[in-house]
Every structure is written in C-alpha cells, then in structure tokens.
Amino acid sequence: MIEGESEGDSVTDAALLRAHVAGDPDAFTTLVTRHQDRLWTIAIRIMRNPEDAADALQDAYISAFRKAGSYRGDAQVTTWLHRVVVNACLDRLRTLRSRETEPLPEDLDRWNRMGTTLIKDPVEIKEQRGVVAAALGALNPDQRAALVLVDMEGYSVEEAAQILGCAPGTVKSRCARGRARLLPLLIHLKAEEGT
Q1: Which DSSP string corresponds to 100-119?
Q2: How far is it, in rounded angstroms, from Cα 178 to Cα 150?
Q3: 64, 83 in Cβ contact below 8 A?
Q4: What is the pLDDT of residues 144-182, one digit of tens each?
Q5: Which of 19, 53, 135, 176 is disulfide-compatible with 44, CB 3.0–4.6 A?
Q6: Which domains are delineated in the chain?
C-alpha cells in the first residue's frame, strides 16, 4: 500500500510521486493519468499544433519521470507538473523557431466579408478559434505561456509565476504586453460580436 493511502481515501499526488521515486512501477502512470487532460490542454494552447503539443507533452512526461526525485515539495505536485509541461513546450518552441521560416500572414480581412451576425455556426466557431490561435502565435513563447495560464486556464498570477519559474511582476508584464499585441489582431472579433 502506498504511503498516505487508506482504505477509503484516494492516494495524494505527493504520495504517488514519492512512491514513483521509491520504485513503484505504476505510481507515475496513475499520477499522469489523473492530470493528463489538463496537461494536454496547456500543451495544445501553447504549441497550437496537436503534433507539436503531443511531442512536447511526451518530452515533459519523460522529464518528470526522470526528475521526480528533484521535486522538493515547495509547490503542489500539479503545479510542478504544469511547470514541467510549460518548460517542455517553451523548449520545443525555441527549437522549432530556430528552424522555421516566416509564414505568410493569414487573410484577416476575410472576417469583414463574412457578415455581421453572431457566430453560432460550428464552422464559424472553429474559424474564430483558428484566428485566436493564429493571433496567439504572433506572441513570443513567454507571453503566450503567461496568457494561456492566466487568461485561458484561470490560474492566478502567483500560480502562473510558480509554474513559469519567474516573479509575479514578470507574469503581469508578459500578460499586459501579450494582450496589447493581441488587441489589434482580435479587435474585429469584438466588433462583429457587438453588431
């Protein structure tokens, strides 16, 4: 029986991580399975591409598996896992950026020709998400990660700072600069929504 487990209780994340470090072959799988949906959401929002997100998430799992013994317990295990995922995503983005060419800009004027009705059609909703994802792609990886954690995932600035390994003021600055860069790219969506 894993330490911290009793008959009626589920095992805590910290107990699972300790059990993994102690050699339990199933503990890490249980821990990852418990949090995989949220970790995937973070990876896909930062990477914007399912294949790249899957690769980054796999890198994160390998890193967490190998470095579990270095977990100090300063933060919750989920915060530590999220930080590992964000770091893996940022590392992969830096690698991809060093190899990529500048993509052609998407035709943002297309939204003006689509009409002024409220978006209800699933195809239009998907297109709108694509516009938002493309706009997020215009941000540097640090700004994108901060905005994903704070504005999309609902983390507090302090929690995002723990995950990103920086000061809360840095998270606030990255979010403010990221929002300022996103505004001109997404303002037309707000205008269409109000008409």
Answers
A1: PPPPPPP-TTHHHHT-SSPP
A2: 12
A3: no
A4: 999 889 988 888 999 899 988 899 999 999 999 998 888
A5: 53
A6: 9-100 (1.10.1740.10), 104-195 (1.10.10.10)
Average pLDDT score, the chain: 81
DSSP H helices in the chain: 13-21, 27-47, 50-67, 77-99, 110-113, 122-137, 141-147, 157-164, 168-194
Highest mean pLDDT out of 1-15, 85-99, 114-128: 85-99
As given in the structure block, the two tokens for residue 56 are 């980054």
pTM of the model: 0.60
Q: Three-state SS for 10?
A: coil
pLDDT in tens, 69-84: 888 888 899 999 999 9
Burial class (CB in 10 A: 0-12, 13-18, 19+), 146: buried
Task: Please enumerate, as own/partner, the contacts of 186-194 that have beta carbons within 8 Å and a separation of 24 or more.
Answer: 186/131, 186/132, 186/135, 188/108, 188/111, 188/112, 189/111, 189/128, 189/131, 189/132, 192/111, 192/114, 192/116, 192/119, 193/118, 193/119
